[in-house]
Design goal:
The structure is a homotetramer of 359-residue chains. With 359 residues, chain A is α/β, with parallel strands linked by helices. The first copy, chain A, has 2 domains: 63 residues, Phospho-2-dehydro-3-deoxyheptonate aldolase, domain 1 (Alpha-Beta Plaits), CATH 3.30.70; 275 residues, Aldolase class I (TIM Barrel), CATH 3.20.20.70. Chain A has 11 helices and 14 strands.
């Protein structure tokens, strides 16, 4: 931590700051310069909680932090990559692993619309090599007049699709009230971009212990994302997977601007797996595949992709959904890209499926 | 609504689109052009719910909407300005009105820290002319290690400050679970920027009927903000006040970039009151006052400003809090600016205070 | 300047950095901490030119600067406000001053279209109280097929309008080649937003000595703007006026997002006058006036506003031009706002006009 | 083109608009709706030049364009990919082609610093497989106190490096005045991000006929970039290569946010080659390689990468320069990624080098 004093700060003000630092239990190092004095702080093992108070002392111009504000999520805290296993708690799934050498593909419809739809898509994506099924039961929609999802019925259909295919299921959760229901059906909880800083919800999923897919808010910095993950981990849940899905910028040619630089950056800063959602970033099916290839080439640990067996009739976001054949084509391309950086695609676990009646 | 076809769209594809429009109950108007055909849609009274399906028909390039996606919040739905009255439900407050000719100033600490603090600040801001008290009991903090607020004890202290001063109280609510407690103490519910698209919460405060201060998300367009307000109004609660508080841009010289253009724009698009928060946008006390003046000059119906009797010791955001004397100076300046556009500052209602024991 | 070392930096690496600092003629202060060492640098009188070299030494994680990278434009270099006088070099103008207590209004058409147009608008804006005339002769247009301005004929017409009204003229210059022609006709040179980092052009106008209106690039930070002004001043031209005109953000409800926070910020950082262009930011005439009021309330030293006597027939940007009556109404409002912060509007100098033949 | 009328527009106003459209030589199609009337325009072969005038007629709310504003650069104008050949005009180079199936790598130092440096780097990048040499002689620097390049001496050294290696040379040009000198030494002219909308410069390089590398401005939309290319092509120069190099967003973890979505988008909209600069976007050497892989995976036709034989001593941007060994490693990785999408890396032409004395 570095404290920069105003050019006209008095010796007394500098002293006052040094004393305040000492009172907080740290060591102050005053460094007089030609136009101003800077004061270094040492002795802290992490962020200085009361830093704001120092910032407001008279004569202080700025306070520059040199320690990351997060801890549990940081690569310094844990050097080895975290592997998150999904699907071991609810009976019928073939567990999938996110974060290892293999690149894991999650796919499925934007929204669960019907039994026929979710089963058709689930089988299609499994056949093409996906290791997890995505699908929305509770949908955050910008307009109150847009389709809001099937709710619990959607959850039930997802569970049925898991039983039928063995694919673990990830679905979005929007509030703590529905958490018990979602926990009864979903192998992984998704926190959507709009809820990335919904702290009560982050704490609730943290306490649940269930694996969490945390999507980056579209105005969140990488630091904000890591701090949101810290909320979940600080409740005792280490099973967090991060997801880059595009940020809001002035460019209006895509729904969001996919920030693939975040992938290698997060790999440096954190031990958590990072996957990419090329569907929401692009917003157009015909540009999803190039972004999927790019994400894997950048080092992503996986992808989450929207697939619909009849996009023209999808209840939501159909313009960005791949058809099963185009998804299969994407898988073939992505597999080659992964191979080019010596990573295999994750394979479905080779287990005999538990019978649906088992749960 | 206008449908733009691809340059190479066939006559059959154009026919198919026209038939689909007719099936939805609207009228299609094909307009062949030299390179492509456009198809106009008429007969709709609002947004076309199934527009997505048309967008995905073969040969369709783009679908251009010309009707606003919101209804209840729009100026076309209700031409007269909405006046929101705050403080009439819980006994001890002198009701304040937002949205009329008078410019209403809300002020108070970022966070409730102690009985002494909240009472000192409440009396100070009332003396300087504020008509409502703000204060956080539940705080959304980017870091899990930052001070999270006093919770229910904070609510109780805010209610006590209302009893002592007559100022109605606005406080942030972060989840539906705490709604009953907040309703028992707060005259107005604040939805913070990070929760602007927390739809379950929007619906819950909508159902409560209590006046709502809805802050713009820092990556939300004006349209997004109006749609969030539509969520609240569509649950039957017309008492919504909008708040511009800055958006995230590449400029890092302020915490957020205050978008004052939103003020006259919202006045054109909506009948709801719009106020401005210059404190969070600027992030520095010394630049709050110029932005406060500018906001009133732009036509804002009010301001919400952070004040602390001892900013250097504030538990949160002290660097942006005004002291009581600088707040009083701001009030004097803002009153002159308001007068320059023929608006008075709102005055506290001249009621005898109910005794604290009354509630 | 602070050098932050990697957590795993060796003692030898730290030594190497300290030696490199010493070789550059500065003093290094190593501050060992629990996880990493920081090294403070003192002894520099300004930015450290070779800082990059230190950043790349092994073991260095980050280099944090605490000195502003500009000098001549800074408030620390010159404490008193700079007053820029325009119109004293070419005979017929009544000089205007930017930067003093008075708020100066510059107005005129986006583009010079014809003798009739520019004279009509010039007289109208003078009658309403403007002290300078703006008008484009060379226009930077996003499309090569849009009207590009009248060129030298436009300059000549501007000079004629100055002779007729006494208003000094500001016009945009796009390259050094046309500088002699523009210098023969214009009292002030405008550098447009798209050319804010056109360094050869900045140097050329710097060498000319003629007053310069430097518009902020729409992706430029305040620091970038001040550094661009530093280019002009470092060529010996102190007559620089800065202009905030909106930045590019995700919000698409206005052409650009006007950043009024920049006004008080620049007043703190620099001694140069700062004016605001509400026309280009808003892009719509009906929202220009509220932003003009807000800009003056925020402390701007002036405004530059587009006015056209027949906006529906303007060759460019007509949708944002005020008509003469609405400009006069704006002037009345802006005068009241200025008075509310104890500033008068600048008045035209009360000189007898030189006869046109005098130049 | 679609004209949307205000809800309260009169029949007479609608008539007036239709007549205005007819006067411009187009056909108007009025489509009355329940709340407002829309008017379609057909008969135009491109953008409607006088569209602004219609927008300002009374009763008009909005004007929605459905035709792209550019023509020569569009895929509709020319369906086949353009191949740009570089190096055939100045004797000693082995021509390189941008835009074909092969992925072309351009590499070299940020700035030419010395004969030793540029020759060392040129040989290194050639050995690793680059087919063109980049290097700056005239440098646009944000600060006037930063190193501004060697100027003509730098150009001379680049030409010498071409003679020695056969690599065609691309270098930035900042104004029309230096164009003759740059043309005498450089095989390709680079327009930097800050000059993307410097229209006199675009026209000058357009008239020169020399191949142009046009970098996207960091606040430019894809449409802006294509319009800038249209400026060059409309002067008769079809040899334009586009370059994505990152845009300015709120995210401050990289210098710029690389927008790889622009790659497949530009491939759809335009026939021009599009390459990617991962160095300036990332700003850190350790994250250049993942972005380089991602760019090729997204479909880029090439890369332009900064390489320095001793980054710690580079005069500019050393923190983002790859060393020759890390560049060679990048080439190996990029070649595998390209192979995964069935594209080879471009190979140096197998010509005997002309002797230096030949030019």
């Amino acid at each position: 931590m570095l404290i920069v004093m105003e050019a006209h700060a008095t010796a007394e003000q500098i002293d006052q700051v040094c004393r305040a630092v000492a009172e907080l239990g740290y060591t102050a190092h005053a460094m007089p310069g030609p136009t101003r004095t800077a004061i270094g702080i040492t002795g802290n093992n992490g962020p200085i909680g009361d830093a704001d108070r120092i910032e407001r002392l008279p004569g202080v111009r700025e306070l520059i932090s040199v320690t990351a504000p997060y801890k549990l999520v940081s690569r310094e805290f844990r050097e080895a990559d975290t592997l998150v296993q999904i699907g071991s708690e609810l009976g019928a799934a073939q567990p999938a692993t996110l974060g290892g050498a293999a690149v894991a593909i999650i796919a499925g419809p934007c929204t669960v619309e019907s039994r026929e739809q979710v089963l058709a898509v689930a089988h299609a994506v499994k056949d093409a090599g996906a290791v997890m099924l995505r699908g929305g039961a509770y949908k955050p929609r910008t307009s109150p007049y847009a389709f809001q999802g099937l709710g619990f019925e959607g959850l039930r259909l997802l569970a049925e699709a898991r039983d039928a295919t063995g694919l673990p299921v990830v679905t979005e959760i929007m509030d703590a009230e529905t958490l018990p229901m979602v926990l009864s059906c979903a192998d992984m909880l998704q926190i959507g971009a709009r809820n990335m800083q919904n702290y009560p919800l982050l704490k609730a999923v943290g306490r649940s212990g269930r694996p969490v897919l945390l999507k980056r808010g579209f105005a969140a910095t990488v630091k904000d994302l890591l701090l949101a993950a810290e909320y979940i981990m600080s409740e005792g849940n280490p099973n967090v997977v991060l997801c880059e899905r595009g940020i809001r910028t002035f460019d209006d040619s895509a729904r969001f601007t996919l920030d693939l630089h975040a992938v290698p950056l997060i790999k440096q800063l954190s031990h958590l797996p990072i996957i990419v959602d090329p569907s929401h970033a692009s917003g157009r099916a015909d540009r999803v595949v190039p972004l999927a290839r790019a994400a894997v080439a950048a080092g992503a640990d996986g992808l989450i992709v929207e697939v619909h067996h009849a996009p023209a009739f999808a209840a939501c976001d159909g313009e960005q959904a791949l058809t099963p054949p185009s998804f299969a084509a994407m898988m073939a391309q992505v597999e080659r890209i992964a191979a080019a950086i010596d990573r295999p695609l994750a394979q479905p676990a080779n287990l005999t499926l538990a019978s649906p009646s088992a749960w």
